[in-house]
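In the current project phase, our protein records have gained a structure token line. A sample record follows, to show the layout:
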Amino acid sequence: FSLAVNAGREVVNNMVNFMQALTPVLLTMLVAVGGVASATIFSPVVMVTLNIFGTLIKDIVLPLLFFVAVLGIAGNLTSHLKVSGLSELLKSVAMGLTGVFSTVFVGVLAIQGVAGAVGDSLTFKTAKYSVDAFVPVVGGMLSDALEAVVGSSLLIKNALGIAGVAVIISILAVPLLKIVTLAFIYKLAGALIQPVNDDQMVSCLNSLSNSLFLVFAAVATTGLLFFFTITILVGVGNITVMLH
């Protein structure tokens, strides 16, 4: 169980490191398609929240779930120690923190992205018409060239977004498979020993299995949040070009 939790912490750390490397590239491509205001808004928000969320999962949520598993074992091995209430409370706190922060983060990104895209579209139109009107002879040609550059940059940015999602999935797939496999092994062990063992050991194994499913949910939620981050960054560029 400890190995599974550590694997979860490691995969979250790997995803955070990858997102910290990918985000500046996506923001640069966002500037290339005319999303200067969006990139300016996103740059501090995304980098700070990635660190906060990674720290929250690694150093708060997963240790809390580990403690929940320990309490589950202790409560099932002896009838004199009643800790089920504390265990449920810590479980609710851990998953509640994950859910609330994920919702707030995605909501803020989406709202800021739409606002930035509208501002960028106005800026782009102004720049395009200024070039067309005030640059003699070649103004129209430069204006068309600007649109061609934006369109090409959009294709590159979308390709980077797809590659980023593929890397996130590759980072997540094997560790999540290990965690969920261990959880099913605990369930299977509890079912097999139930006819020949007391209910306390069966309850311990089921408690460990349930805790592993919570670890799976926390790590998968982290990957889903990073997937949404990439999607929003790519989508904002598409909206910006569409509004152009």
User: Anything to note?
Assistant: The radius of gyration is 24 Å. The chain has a mean pLDDT of 76. Residues 139-193 form the longest helix (55 residues). The CA atoms of residues 127 and 223 lie 38 Å apart.
